[in-house]
Amino acid sequence: MTHSGEPQVTSAFGPGALGVGIGDMPDHWDLVADIVVIGAGATGLPAAIAARDAGASVIVVEANYDIGGHAILSGGNVPLGGGTSAQRKYGIADSPALVFADLTDWTIVQPNGWPDYRYNDRAVMRAFADHAAEAYEFLVANGVRFKDVPPDTVARYNTFVDTDVDTDFGKPRPQYKLQTPPFYATWSTPLVHDTRAGLRINAQCQVVDMDGQVILGLYCGGESAGGFNQHGLGRCTAQGYMAGKYAALERP
After folding, report:
1. Lower CB count within 10 Å: N or C terminus of the chain?
2. What would the pLDDT profile of 191-230 be if each residue is shown by its tens digit?
3. Distance between CA atoms of residues 150 and 148, nearest Å
4. Nearest residue to 207 (alpha-carbon basis) of 12, 3, 7
């Protein structure tokens, strides 16, 4: 849609929504808004809030009977860095430049032998890196509570080995202490994985056509956007925040 007085559309889909009966569906719609967000998931909700904060009127459309999308089934891990307040609290040095370097590092090889990050769109990566910390603070300001975990988890885990009881996660009889650094951790939990393709977007989360031309009024982020080979709530929430903010700026 164009921005000549018509509503903008922020395409922030929540894939995997369950179908519901059509008996309660209205026969006629006469709602009007500056921005219509499709999908009330981890991308759509930040998009709607960011657009509202920028002064736009917003309608969120969701196919499911509740909200949340894939975020409901996620592991709850939100990888947003670049210099957040949480990182500063514990003296963790980070920056947008470091985030960008990590996400475009060809030396990170997956178990299948492929350096998947080499397929990332550099402009999209740069935009995410520049907005990651800002998106984190946006989530905190809107009521998201992140668990405050001081960086003493190794010492705490070693006490579980001494007592044979893991009071944090209920792991059966931990037997081996972590004693000699460096230590490496990996996230391991059943969760919904990411998509491998999606709409092509630019650094402002605007959808572009096959010729690379911007489709006015159409934005996309999260699992429905391509060019970003990294799953997780960090990408979804940051791109939702970006899409909502930039869509609101496009209003006439």
Report:
1. C
2. 555 556 789 999 999 999 999 999 999 999 988 898 887 6
3. 6
4. 12
8-20+30-151+187-249: CATH, from 3.20.20.30, 3.40.50.10190, 3.50.50.60, 1.10.10.60 = 3.50.50.60
**Largest Cα–Cα distance in the chain?**
68
Q: Would you tell me how many other CB atoms lie within 10 Å of the CB of residue 66?
A: 10
Examine the pLDDT at 4 and tell me if it is beyond 50.
Answer: no
Residues in the chain: 252
Return the DSSP state at 9: E
3-state SS, residue 8: strand
- Count of beta carbons in the 10 Å neighbourhood of residue 72: 14
Q: DSSP letter at 214? A: E
Q: Where is 126: in which H helix or E strand?
A: helix 122-141
50 contacts 248 by C-beta, under 8 angstroms: yes
